[in-house]
From TrEMBL, chains A, B:
Gene3D superfamilies assigned to the protein according to its UniProt record, in alphabetical order: 2.60.40.650, Oxidoreductase, molybdopterin-binding domain (3.90.420.10)
EC class of the enzyme, as a word: oxidoreductase
Occurrences of domain Oxidoreductase molybdopterin-binding (ranges): 139-298
Keyword Metal-binding: yes
Highest taxon of source: Bacteria
Keyword annotations of the record: Metal-binding, Molybdenum, Oxidoreductase
Entry EC number(s): 1.8.2.1
Gene that encodes it: soxC
A GO molecular-function annotation: molybdopterin cofactor binding
This protein's name: Sulfite dehydrogenase
GO BP term, example: sulfur compound metabolic process
InterPro entries: Ig_E-set, MoCF_OxRdtse_dimer, Mopterin_OxRdtase_euk, OxRdtase_Mopterin-bd_dom, OxRdtase_Mopterin-bd_sf, Sulfite_DH_SoxC, TAT_signal
Amino acid sequence: MQSSLTPGRVRKAPENFLDGEGIQQAVAEARQGRRDFLRGAFAAAAGVAAAAGAAAAPAPADGDPNILQLPEHSRGLGQPVATDGYGKPSKYEANVQRRTSPGLTQTRQASVSFAPLQSLFGIVTPSGLHFERHHQGWWDIDPSKHRLMVNGQVKAAKVFTMDEIMRLPSVSRFHFIECGANTGMEWGNVAVPTCQYTHGMLSCSEFTGVPLRTLLEMAGVDFRKSRFVLGEGADGSSMTRTVPMDLVESGEVLVAYGQNGEMLRPENGYPLRLVAPGVQGVSWVKYLRRIEVGDQPWNTKDETVHYVDLMPDGTHRQYTSLQECKSVVTTPSGGQVLLDKGFYSITGLAWSGRGKVKAVDVSVDGGRSWRPARLQEPVMSKCLARFSADWVWDGKPAIIQSRATDETGYVQPSYRQLRAVRGTRSIYHNNAIQSWLVEESGEVKNVQVG
Amino acid sequence: MQSSLTPGRVRKAPENFLDGEGIQQAVAEARQGRRDFLRGAFAAAAGVAAAAGAAAAPAPADGDPNILQLPEHSRGLGQPVATDGYGKPSKYEANVQRRTSPGLTQTRQASVSFAPLQSLFGIVTPSGLHFERHHQGWWDIDPSKHRLMVNGQVKAAKVFTMDEIMRLPSVSRFHFIECGANTGMEWGNVAVPTCQYTHGMLSCSEFTGVPLRTLLEMAGVDFRKSRFVLGEGADGSSMTRTVPMDLVESGEVLVAYGQNGEMLRPENGYPLRLVAPGVQGVSWVKYLRRIEVGDQPWNTKDETVHYVDLMPDGTHRQYTSLQECKSVVTTPSGGQVLLDKGFYSITGLAWSGRGKVKAVDVSVDGGRSWRPARLQEPVMSKCLARFSADWVWDGKPAIIQSRATDETGYVQPSYRQLRAVRGTRSIYHNNAIQSWLVEESGEVKNVQVG
């Protein structure tokens, strides 16, 4: 397969994993002196610019070699304000995309698209790159017709319009959302090549909404008697999940409409979704249309045959609610290439469904020795935390790992530790330490260690 | 001018202020029982849906009036994952746009577009809605060709590529950016109709970048001798601004490439801009190409004839660096309509260029009495803070205000207090208390009080 990095051609976002031959060609081009390679998007810039007919390198003005002409953008008038009432990223970032994995699922409506974590910074996930997980596709629902019913063990069942919900006092909080199946392929040591595919069912946003507790109190609930709520979605899959009442009572569960300052995106549940901080993503019911209050779990289709873990003793572990403490190095990570020895900032993300990340350690020798990483403040509860550590690469093979500890004292386990408890037949809830092998060539690969 | 809210027609984003006749028609339609009006986008939903041929209201199935058919989105397959590798907002949000003000400037390249604060939540500004202020338009610059030079009073001048900058240890911080001219029209009591136009030269993002201090240390700087840096941009206006060294020495000034988790947007300076927390927006030089280190201010064209305030004694106040503590109620705000009496959550934003917001008070009687509002935690330094306060509207006229206090003890002034110090000939740096008059009809208007 031809590499899409040959200069002069427009680079299209690859649908598939970057193949081995493509990697070889990219490395060869890079070693020919094109040093702008660490970020794949920059490597594409030459191709994109050539295709778009952008200005050539500065040429002497009036034939005098001592006078260089400024680039066009330093001389010309430029684009006007509000060229777009809603702007978009640079064309040079066209390769930064969420991606699905062809063949992963039978249909693309019951499927996943992965966030390109290796290309992101900080903790906010750009809403256009938020991962997706749908069971029966997504819709752009008319908010003026959408309703939320609250029924079950309540004094008086209520039906809310969006306007009614949005008039109530709201809160805004930064939280991660992670699919219970994130990193699932690695149970079977599939070794998918990039961080996007190993960990990309993960995103983080500032969510705005009304605490579910407020709506329950308006409907009249008895917290001593009713210890569970059911969330039901309006999409074709009628997603239904039990959520424990303690998380609702604390005010943490939100009926949310805001995502990073604007309304939710349609793929993320517009106009309304449940936000259950720390709980696996499936319980954050999208297109939320009903909340039922009850005194026992509902054992719905979405929590009895799916999202359960087969334990070594043959039983199924159900209702695994919270995403345990986890981390991943996003750079250097699988599929990237280090072109020279020297300084690198190892950086990545850490999170815990139980609260705040307390510490992150980094290893460059496959877990034999560890040192603490810096955590970007402020560290927020049940939210992504960005970490970084300094590293000087000496050109020899290295295995890079991160290991997070949360405020409960829980330490992210190695694969060996996790399998000792969970066996080898799990699909979900894989929070093991991720390893990236840096080869002498500079290529970075997904490996499993310990 | 015809209202764009007539049911059945596609609603286009209005280019101009919503005219008086348009407001009257909208209010009349709302009073005919269409209660979904508080958010203008929802009002458009009926028109958009009709135009797009969306499913009609549920119809009886098999002619049996007791069985309603589910809407199409609850029955059908829906859209696949990664329909867009980079997603976009709901079509029902098409009216949430940044807008320019026709006639405000001679050209649209030396102009402004305003963020729609009245439609936003939390503190993050969606990057597509970030305000713009350009002096000679904007460009989408090839990052592989972009360079940053550091020269002046340094041991050895340096030139950095984007890759070299992005390999260095970085930090990520949430900061507001406000144009020095924000709210400028209100000096002259122009009373522009909406919050978008009174306060919309304001946005907030998670910025990622390298502390400028790191780059200066690499070039070799003497902090005792050199107390100023100059930032220079690569756009046609060659924007150049002096920044005091103390902000650089503290590590706060960043050479930034990340905005809300992805690369900067081209309109916001892709691939590199200065981030000078708390300083007025013009100093956050976009398309940053050069940093010069020196021992006195440069008195550039961009800081001698512009961005100065004419004081009552006839002198010009130069180098007003920090944006003083300020706040605004974003809902209810000018141009909105309250359709009925009852509960409303008064909400808005507060910020200070000197550090953290300490407190926000809200008044509904034009400043005669005040009560504290809730601040959304965590409150971050030189960053937007979201506040809210409960209010029950009794249907009588009310004047809503917010007043912020920052951690230095500085209290946001009224117009009377501000004019007493600054006179009446200022253009910039208007941080006075904003008033919104709620009339008995429910219409909300921009007024100046005190």
